[in-house]
Amino acid sequence: MNTKLFSGYFCFIVNVVKKMMGDFHNSFDFGRFKSVHQFRGGVRRQFKMNDDWGLKYGVPYWIRVIEEDVCLDVYIYLREGGKLIFSGQDALIEGRRDLPYFYRVKWVKDLPCSFVTFNDPSLYKSTEFGAGYLCTKGAWDILKRAVQKIVFDCKLSESDLIFYGASAGGYWALTMATYFPGAVFVVDIPQVNLETYFSDDKKKHFVSTYESPAKLPCVFDYWEIGKYPKNIYYLQNRRDYFHIRTQYSFFLKGIGELAERGVYSGGDLKVIFYDTPEGTRGHTPLPQDMTISLLRDISSQRAV
């Protein structure tokens, strides 16, 4: 047998299989996590969590980490000095179902600090609900470790961090509070209790779709005793009656219980109500320009 010919044929077969299945280096273009996004103008790389990601200032990065069947996509843009904003992912809407979808990356040019956002790994299982709330096995944990890695590699302290999120993104931001209690958390019309957010039928379908725990976690389930966030801005649209009744009231009750136990100071929570124009739906976040202005003020420590 011609050894060189066999070796060449074997390598060809291996490469074909890799392209069909999606190997470590080609998961962007092949396999179950294939994406239509080309990410022009930025750097697209796949790493293991413990690798040196080699991040540089002033460069947009799309970093991918795959562990077993969990795929995490992270957008990173770093500026030297200043704060870092971690932005949670809103629920996907029609026209935004091609994964990964990085919300608010266009804000980077208007913000004076570093910016990181991500795609919920749960959405690779299904985009039916628009948001998976990181409920599939391993999704929340891989994102938590990625956040911790970025903070460590950038040599940042908790006081340098701002966690922002609207709706489903606000839910995620608050779940991170116990790991970075010294950070600032800015949440806008967030879900905080998925048990009261979903109807019984929708909840059953959600649990079945994402193979999540039968009892869906509220944000307080993620908080550990003695590790409570010290600085929360809770933004609430006055027209969002459903969220005021099922989410905002639940959050205030939970904070009140912590305050009664003497482990949380009410002064750490800043509630900001706002109105959106007549005719807009209630579950609408603060307008972009006002949100950016608030984040700019917080990042420069001018907000009150």
- How many runs of DSSP E, i.e. beta strands? 9
| Widest beta sheet: strand line-up | 1-2-3-5-4-6-7-8-9
CATH top level is Alpha Beta
CATH superfamily: Alpha/Beta hydrolase fold, catalytic domain
Which descriptor suits the 3D outline?
Answer: globular
Quick gist of this model?
The chain is an alpha/beta fold.
What does this protein structure show overall?
This protein is of the alpha/beta class and 304 residues long. It has a single domain, classed as Rossmann fold. It is 29% helix and 17% strand. The chain contains seven helices and nine strands; from the N terminus they run αβββββαβαβααβαβα. A nine-stranded mixed sheet has the order 1-2-3-5-4-6-7-8-9, with helices on both faces. Strand 2 and strand 3 form a beta hairpin. The longest helix is centred in the last third of the chain and has 20 residues, at 241-260. Residues 16-23 have low confidence and may be disordered.
Keywords:
single chain; 304 residues; alpha/beta; Rossmann fold; 7 helices; 9 strands; 29% helix; 17% strand; globular
Topology:
Layout: H1 3-21, E1 43-46, E2 61-67, E3 70-77, E4 84-87, E5 114-119, H2 139-153, E6 161-166, H3 168-175, E7 184-188, H4 194-197, H5 200-210, E8 231-237, H6 241-260, E9 269-274, H7 288-299
Parallel strand pairs: 1-2, 4-5, 4-6, 6-7, 7-8, 8-9
Antiparallel strand pairs: 2-3, 3-5
